[in-house]
Write a structure and sequence with these properties.
It is a single chain. This protein has 425 residues and is an alpha/beta fold. It has 14 helices and 17 strands. The strands form six sheets. It has a four-stranded antiparallel sheet with strand order 5-4-2-17, with helices on both faces. Helix 5 links the parallel strand 9 and strand 10. Helix 4 packs antiparallel against helix 9 (314-324), helix 4 crosses helix 11 and helix 6 packs across helix 8 (270-284).
Length: 425
């Protein structure tokens, strides 16, 4: 079975992962030449991941898992030329990167499993960009567990009578993948988001219909009080919002906060958008709503649950976040951690990220966290620290196999500041 999955001769990759960080505190114009050189270095590192390999012939197999006997002993002198060639390859890569990165302030680490083959300023704090999401991923998986599910609910002061309900509240739980059927269909047309795990807002409308509700004599209110209602990070560059790199942050968000997505336009209040979309989907199912949708409003203290929908597992959501480099998901997960330890704000969430990383035994020296997505240029981390997180079991064992489906893509690149590449196994 194993030989059926691996071609002969087998390709053994020696450089398994690499990390390249570039400072982000210079002006945009000044960074353009630097970005080109850093991209060239990232491409060189990625190419070497693919090309710097050793061919190892394997013995014929009977398709069993019984290991074949080596034709040449592991420590035979006959193997010395191959080992010297591997070492020479590392030296060659070292020289190529030196020439490419000459005069560029950056850090770089390339490793094979737990071993580090190359390192350039691995302890220098620089802007991690999208690699910041690795820190958030490890922290949220450690705190909540990969089998955690978000639950978005429709609640009322009392159950419906004779098919008639009064005011309803759509209560957000921080689910970052809540979608309408139309947005779900759009995601499936995009190569990067095809197959993304999502939560169906329409399932809530179905549950309302199954509960026998035919009429709402009142309004549907959106309740996003679980998190603070600041829709962006104060220190973000305005272009992140005008270029729609991230939608508005909130505990009740549907379709990533986009009112339209071709082209993108952001909702001023994602909770109102979510309530409006639920009202539309309910109307399609024959439920009439007397007074439409209200502004955001907190649900009463004592309520009855009318309908509930659960998200995919947190492990699947985090895997999609890393694969797509989803900025909004990262910011919402940080606020969920902030809800556990504080007011549901970003500052409390980032403090929780640092605390969780320390509890995992992961180093946090040299780290400065300003947001969860890595968009903010004041974030700081080191190549060495991020690579340690990348190698942690929560990343490698829980979700690592999902990344290998996009072998070599890495974890995204924001403005050319960061590139992680990982060879397919």
């Amino acid at each position: 079975m194993r030989d059926a999955l691996w071609p002969k001769p087998r390709l053994l990759t020696y450089i398994r992962s690499g990390l390249l960080l570039q400072p982000a505190d210079s002006s945009t114009d000044a960074r353009r030449p630097m970005r080109g050189r850093v991209r060239a270095a990232a491409c060189l590192l990625a190419a070497m991941v693919s090309v710097f390999i050793a061919l190892r012939p394997v013995a014929a197999s009977d398709n069993t898992l019984t290991p074949s006997r080596l034709g040449t002993p592991m420590w035979s002198p006959r193997r010395v030329p191959a080992l010297l060639a591997d070492a020479a390859g590392v030296v060659k890569l070292d020289g190529s990167l030196d020439r490419t990165l000459k005069g560029v302030t950056t850090c770089l680490v390339a490793g094979d499993g737990a071993s580090t083959l190359l390192a350039r300023s691995p302890d220098q704090p620089l802007a991690p960009a999208s690699n910041q999401k690795l820190l958030v991923a490890a922290a949220v998986l450690a705190r909540l567990g990969p089998e955690y599910h978000f639950e978005t609910k429709v609640v009322a002061r009392e159950q419906a009578r004779n098919g008639v309900a009064r005011d309803l509240w759509l209560v957000g739980s921080g689910d970052p993948v809540l979608t309408t059927p139309e947005y779900r269909q759009f995601l499936e047309t995009q190569p990067l988001t095809r197959g993304r795990p999502t939560t169906s807002l329409d399932d809530l409308a179905k549950e309302m219909q199954r509960a026998g509700i035919r009429e709402i004599r009142g309004r549907i209110h959106g309740d996003d009080s679980r998190y603070t209602r600041r829709r962006a990070i104060a220190t973000w560059k305005p272009v992140y919002l005008t270029d729609h790199e991230v939608g508005p942050i909130g505990a009740l968000t549907v379709n990533e906060g986009w009112q339209t997505w071709t082209p993108r336009s952001a909702s001023a209040d994602p909770s109102i958008l979510a309530a409006s979309e639920l009202a539309r989907l309910a109307a399609v199912r024959g439920i009439t709503i007397a007074d439409g949708v209200s502004d955001s409003a907190i649900a009463p203290g004592k309520v009855e649950t009318v309908a509930v929908v659960r998200s995919p597992s947190l492990g699947d959501i985090v895997a999609a976040m890393l694969r797509e480099s989803s900025n909004l998901t990262a910011e919402m997960l940080v606020r969920e951690l902030g809800r556990r330890d504080g007011d549901g704000g970003t500052d409390a969430g980032l403090a929780a990220v640092t605390q969780e990383l320390r509890s995992l035994g992961l180093p946090t020296e040299g780290m400065k966290l300003t947001d969860g997505s890595g968009l903010d240029v004041s974030n700081r981390a080191t190549c060495g620290r991020i690579l340690v997180v990348h190698r942690h079991r929560l990343i490698r064992h829980r979700i690592g196999h999902r990344h290998r489906r996009v072998g070599g893509r890495g974890y995204g690149c924001v403005h050319g500041r960061v590139q992680i590449t990982e060879a397919p196994p």
